[in-house]
Specification:
Length: 262
C-alpha cells in the first residue's frame, strides 16, 4: 500500500509536467515561428518479486514472473519542427522558410542563434535585424535611398535606389540546418542555440542541400493545433484525477488497517 502511494504520486507529477508543456503551447498559439513541444514519459524500475523462468520444481520453470512497477518519469520534452501555417502580410522584410532551415542572427556576445521567426526590421544603420535588434548573419545593410526591397527564393536581396531603374544586389541570406534540430536549446525570444545533441549548423544558400526556400511578405505562424492541445489537456487532467484517486484509495486502505482491533 505504501508503494502505491509513491507510484501514484509519480503519475501526478508527470501529468503536472504534461499540463505545463501543453499550457506553454497554448500560450504561444499566436507566436510567429513557435514550435510546439511534446512531453515524453517512460516507466520506472520494476521490483522483481519472482523472475520469469525461475525453477519451481525439478525440470519445471515459472512461465510468468511477478514484477511490480514503481511509476513513471519524464523522459524528454521535445520540440516538434513541423511547418506552421503561412500568413500573408505583404511586408517586404517578413520572410518564411518553406521547408527545412533556420535564419541566423548575431547575439550581443558575438555568438550565433537560430530562429524560424522571419519578422525582420531595419535598424537606424539600415541593417536587417530581428525584433530585438539582433542583426541577421551574414550582416546585410539596405541603402538609405532604397525604394523597394526584393528577396528571392534563393535568398538574394536586391533593391531599387532612387533615380535608378536597375536592381542592385546587396547580399544573400544564408540558412542553417541541423542533423537533429530537436537537440537545439530553446533560449526564448524565438531563438535556439547549438548543443552537442543538435550537431553543428550546416549553412548555405536557401534551396540547396535540403534547405528550404524563402518567400517574401509571408510569416510562419505557430504550429500549435488548438483542438489537439485541448484534447491532450483533457487527457492529462483525467490522468491526474485517476492518479489522485489511487492516492486516495491507498490512504483509505491504510486507514482501514490502522483501525483494526484484536
Amino acid at each position: 500500500m505504501i508503494r502505491s502511494l509513491f507510484t501514484a504520486a509519480t503519475g501526478m507529477h508527470a501529468q503536472q509536467l504534461n499540463v505545463d508543456v501543453i499550457s506553454n503551447n497554448l500560450a504561444n498559439v499566436n507566436t510567429v515561428g513557435f514550435k510546439r513541444s511534446r512531453a515524453d514519459f517512460q516507466d520506472l524500475l520494476y521490483q522483481n518479486l519472482r523472475n520469469p523462468g525461475a525453477p519451481s520444481a525439478e525440470g519445471v520453470q515459472i512461465p510468468v514472473g511477478i514484477q511490480v512497477g514503481l511509476g513513471v518519469k519524464p523522459a524528454s520534452v521535445q520540440k516538434l519542427f513541423t511547418q506552421g501555417d503561412f500568413l500573408n502580410t505583404g511586408n517586404n522584410l517578413d520572410m518564411v522558410i518553406e521547408g527545412d532551415g533556420f535564419f541566423q542572427v548575431t547575439m550581443p556576445d558575438g555568438t550565433i542563434s537560430y530562429t524560424r521567426a522571419g519578422s525582420f526590421k531595419l535598424d537606424k544603420d539600415g541593417r536587417i535585424v530581428n525584433p530585438d535588434g539582433y542583426p541577421m548573419e551574414p550582416a546585410i545593410s539596405v541603402p538609405s535611398d532604397a525604394t523597394n526591397i526584393t528577396i528571392g527564393t534563393d535568398g538574394k536581396i536586391t533593391v531599387l535606389q532612387a533615380g535608378n531603374t536597375t536592381p542592385v544586389e546587396i547580399g544573400t541570406i544564408e540558412l542553417a540546418r541541423f542533423i537533429n534540430p530537436a537537440g537545439l536549446l530553446a533560449v526564448g525570444k524565438n531563438l535556439f542555440t547549438v548543443t552537442d545533441a543538435s550537431g553543428d549548423a550546416i549553412t548555405g544558400t536557401p534551396g540547396t542541400e535540403g534547405r528550404g526556400t524563402i518567400n517574401q511578405g509571408i510569416l510562419e505562424s505557430s504550429n500549435v493545433n488548438v483542438v489537439e492541445e485541448l484534447a491532450n489537456l483533457i487527457i492529462a487532467q483525467r490522468a491526474f484525477d485517476l492518479n489522485s484517486k489511487a492516492v486516495q484509495t491507498s490512504d483509505e486502505m491504510l486507514q482501514t488497517v490502522a483501525a483494526l482491533r484484536r
